[in-house]
């Protein structure tokens, strides 16, 4: 006999051969006996994972190791979130059912600890002496850090009427950043504490008492006194008498008095004119013409007269103002027909009378000059440059005449300089000497309509030149968190600097106490360039012995990014398993940042992706991760910058089976073939 062993799928056999020899010949016969196939006896021999997204279980037949079956597993996962300090994990479970039995395998993905991400969440002050800043981790609010602050203060003293203050600033440095908080203590106003500091008499008819606050000499109160008089010694026709005048005031519940004695007489003198009426030049109908006389004497009475020309006959005026010291011709009467009229006043008392000089009315069709710009004060170092005074006036047919005086109380003198009849008066550098320090200059501007006198400008001559700014600080436009500097360049001797700032173009200037505030360059560190300072202005006062000059204001503008705008959404895709796929978002904006999220279905919870490409505009799934179990997953991207953030639309991943995937046969087709 001969035999063939059975296999899993093939039955074995035994062939029996019978042999006989008869009459010298050999005869044979054979018979075959069929065996039975052994059949499969599979056992699990291994798992193959494709990353964490898919796995395959392999089953091998014990009867024939060449017979192998592989089954795609169903993947489930359990996620343990990481904390600030502890790692998290995702435990993936692969499950297959084969020949009626369930088989499982697990694989764990470690999630790194988040680490701390602290933010300032509050300040705690202990009175004004100390303070603490509290920082809380965004990832876990139970993790906090408390920092003791360094306290500095700026004191503003109270005045009589205004409260003062002490502004305390708490500063801490935490993780390389500076944080500040302020607290203000109010100092009560001092209130007034007045004392009598003097009396001012106006002749003998009135007086004022001046009270000055001890706390601030700039605060004064003036009180009009009640005047009483008494005769100390009677006057006669041969001898003067003496009167005592007493001024009395009541102030804050107390009485104060002062007295003054003066001689008096019963003899009446004739009037004396101390100021004659002045000529008036006006444009027709432009204004009233006013003529005034000032006279001394007792029991004075007035009578105005007029005539139509300098050779005409004087006529007594019957106007209502003709018996006062001021004669007013209304604007409606200031007409060309009255040009050349003259006016004078007779002043009378019981002793006699006196007549003023005649004043002439000139009526023109030309307007009186108007000064638009008065000459400005000039401060120069002795001999350094010419002193230039300029007047700007408007009007027709203007003429100019400059005057000067040696002090603010001196007598004006008419200049005969060659430039004295122009709008610009120039004192050459050789004349800018110490002896002219305090000289004043003014200009009389005239035309047919009249004349007008400018304000006085003062020449100050020093041995040191007043600073001159040759380069102004420039406005800056930067992004928050960028250090910025403002610089002023000035020329002069012994210069000192002081920077000021204000919060807007209409705000009040405040003196800076920064360490760089007394240098030519004012620097804001990056930590101070924050959104709240947008629009702040900075300027510098440059000073020396000759005076000071203030720079132009430089503006700090913070460039804040606009909120991102998504211009192209990520698109849904359908691919075969094992095919790499990418989702791309396109957006416009400055300083863009990206973060991709995914969820397992349209109703699932979004999870933050930790893939290496999760912070880029394009999110890529490598081929090994594109498996049937991810079909229906959704992906979206968060795009953000300093201006805000926006989510893209969700893109859906649809995965179809690959060609080499195991498929169950279509039983309806098999049945049709059988039939």
Question: How would you sum up this structure, described in words?
Answer:
The chain has 1 helix and 61 strands. By secondary structure, the protein is mainly beta. Strands 23, 26, 27, 29, 30 and 31 form a 6-stranded mixed beta sheet that branches. A hairpin with a 6-residue loop joins strand 17 (206-213) and strand 18 (220-224). It is elongated.
Supply database-style keywords.
elongated; 675 residues; six-stranded mixed β-sheet; 1 helix; mainly beta; 61 strands
Question: Low-confidence parts, pLDDT < 50 over ≥5 residues?
Answer: 661-672
Number of helices: 1
Q: State which percent range the strand residues make up.
A: over 45%
Coarse shape: elongated
The span between the termini is 42 Å
Number of distinct beta strands = 61
Secondary-structure class: mainly beta
Radius of gyration, taken over Cα atoms and rounded to an integer in Å: 54 Å
Question: What profile does the largest beta sheet have?
Answer: 6 strands, mixed
In helices, the fraction of residues equals under 10%
Mean pLDDT: 90
List the helices and strands and how they pair.
Blueprint: E1 2-4, E2 13-22, E3 25-34, E4 42-50, E5 54-61, E6 68-72, E7 74-80, E8 88-98, E9 101-111, E10 118-126, E11 130-137, E12 144-148, E13 150-156, E14 164-174, E15 177-187, E16 194-202, E17 206-213, E18 220-224, E19 226-233, E20 241-251, E21 254-264, E22 272-275, E23 280-283, E24 289-292, E25 294-296, E26 301-307, E27 315-316, E28 326-329, E29 342-348, E30 353-355, E31 359-364, E32 370-373, E33 378-381, E34 387-390, E35 392-394, E36 399-405, E37 413-414, E38 424-427, E39 440-447, E40 450-453, E41 457-462, E42 468-471, E43 476-478, E44 484-487, E45 489-491, E46 496-502, E47 510-511, E48 521-524, E49 537-544, E50 547-550, E51 554-558, E52 565-568, E53 573-576, E54 581-584, E55 586-588, E56 593-599, E57 607-608, E58 618-621, E59 634-641, E60 644-647, E61 651-656, H1 667-674
Parallel strand pairs: 23-31, 33-41, 43-51, 53-61
Antiparallel strand pairs: 1-2, 2-3, 4-5, 5-6, 7-8, 8-9, 10-11, 11-12, 13-14, 14-15, 16-17, 17-18, 19-20, 20-21, 22-25, 24-28, 26-27, 26-29, 29-30, 29-31, 32-35, 34-38, 36-37, 36-39, 39-40, 39-41, 42-45, 44-48, 46-47, 46-49, 49-50, 49-51, 52-55, 54-58, 56-57, 56-59, 59-60, 59-61
């Amino acid at each position: 006999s001969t035999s063939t062993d059975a296999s899993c799928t093939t039955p074995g056999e035994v062939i029996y051969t019978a042999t006989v020899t008869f009459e010298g010949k050999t005869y044979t016969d054979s018979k075959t006996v069929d065996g039975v196939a052994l059949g499969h006896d599979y056992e699990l021999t291994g798992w193959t994972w494709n990353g964490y997204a898919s796995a395959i279980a392999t089953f091998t037949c014990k009867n024939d190791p060449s017979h192998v079956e592989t089954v795609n597993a169903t993947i489930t996962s359990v996620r343990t979130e990481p904390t600030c300090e502890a790692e998290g994990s995702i435990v993936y479970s692969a499950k297959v059912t084969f020949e009626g039995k369930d088989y499982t395998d697990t694989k764990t993905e470690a999630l790194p600890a988040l680490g701390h991400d602290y933010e300032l969440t509050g300040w705690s002050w202990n009175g004004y002496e100390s303070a603490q800043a509290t920082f809380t981790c965004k990832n876990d609010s139970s993790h906090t850090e408390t920092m003791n602050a360094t306290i500095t203060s700026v004191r503003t003293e109270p005045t009589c009427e205004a409260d003062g203050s002490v502004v305390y600033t708490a500063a801490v440095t935490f993780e390389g950043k500076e944080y500040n908080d302020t607290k203000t203590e109010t100092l009560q106003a001092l209130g007034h504490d007045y004392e009598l500091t003097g009396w001012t008499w106006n002749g003998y008819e009135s007086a004022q008492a001046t009270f000055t606050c001890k706390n601030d000499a700039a605060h004064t109160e003036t009180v009009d006194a009640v005047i009483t008089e008494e005769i100390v010694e009677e006057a006669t026709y041969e001898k003067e008498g003496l009167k005592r005048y007493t001024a009395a005031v009541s102030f804050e519940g107390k009485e104060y008095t002062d007295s003054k004695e003066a001689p008096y007489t019963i003899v009446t003198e004739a009037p004396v004119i101390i100021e004659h009426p002045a000529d008036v030049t006006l444009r027709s109908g432009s204004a009233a013409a006013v003529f005034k006389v000032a006279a001394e004497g007792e029991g004075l009475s007035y009578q105005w007269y007029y005539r139509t020309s300098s050779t005409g006959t004087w006529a007594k005026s019957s106007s209502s103002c003709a018996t006062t010291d001021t004669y007013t011709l209304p604007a409606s009467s200031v007409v060309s027909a009255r040009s050349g009229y003259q006016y004078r006043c007779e002043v009378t008392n019981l002793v006699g009378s006196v007549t003023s000089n005649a004043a002439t009315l000139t009526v023109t069709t030309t307007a009186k000059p108007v000064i638009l710009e008065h000459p400005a004060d000039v401060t120069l170092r002795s001999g350094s440059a010419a002193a230039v005074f300029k007047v700007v006036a408007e009007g027709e047919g203007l003429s100019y005449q400059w005057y000067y005086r040696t002090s603010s109380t001196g007598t004006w003198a008419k200049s005969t300089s060659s430039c004295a009849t122009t709008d610009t008066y120039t004192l050459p550098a050789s004349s800018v000497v110490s002896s002219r320090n305090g000289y004043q200059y003014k200009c009389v501007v005239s035309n047919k309509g009249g004349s007008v006198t400018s304000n006085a400008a003062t020449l100050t001559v020093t041995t040191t030149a007043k600073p001159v700014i040759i380069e102004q600080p420039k406005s800056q436009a930067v992004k928050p968190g960028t250090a910025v500097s403002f610089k002023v360049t000035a020329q002069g001797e012994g210069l000192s600097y002081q920077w000021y700032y204000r919060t807007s173009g209409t705000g009040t200037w405040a003196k800076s106490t920064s360490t760089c505030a007394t240098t030519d360059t004012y620097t804001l560190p990056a930590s101070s360039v924050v959104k709240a300072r947008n629009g702040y202005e900075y300027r510098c006062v440059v000073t020396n012995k000759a005076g000071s000059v203030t720079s132009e204001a430089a503006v700090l503008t913070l460039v804040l990014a606009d909120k991102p705008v998504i211009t192209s959404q990520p698109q849904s895709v359908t691919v075969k398993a094992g095919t790499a796929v990418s989702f791309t978002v396109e957006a416009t904006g400055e300083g863009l940042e990206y973060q991709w999220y995914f969820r397992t279905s349209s109703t699932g919870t979004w999870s933050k992706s930790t893939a290496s490409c999760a912070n880029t505009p394009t999110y890529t799934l490598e081929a090994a991760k594109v498996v049937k179990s991810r079909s229906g997953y959704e992906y979206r991207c968060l795009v953000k910058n300093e201006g805000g953030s926006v989510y893209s639309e969700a893109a859906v991943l649809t995965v179809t089976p690959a060609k080499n995937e195991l498929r169950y046969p279509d039983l309806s087709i098999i049945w049709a073939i059988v039939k």
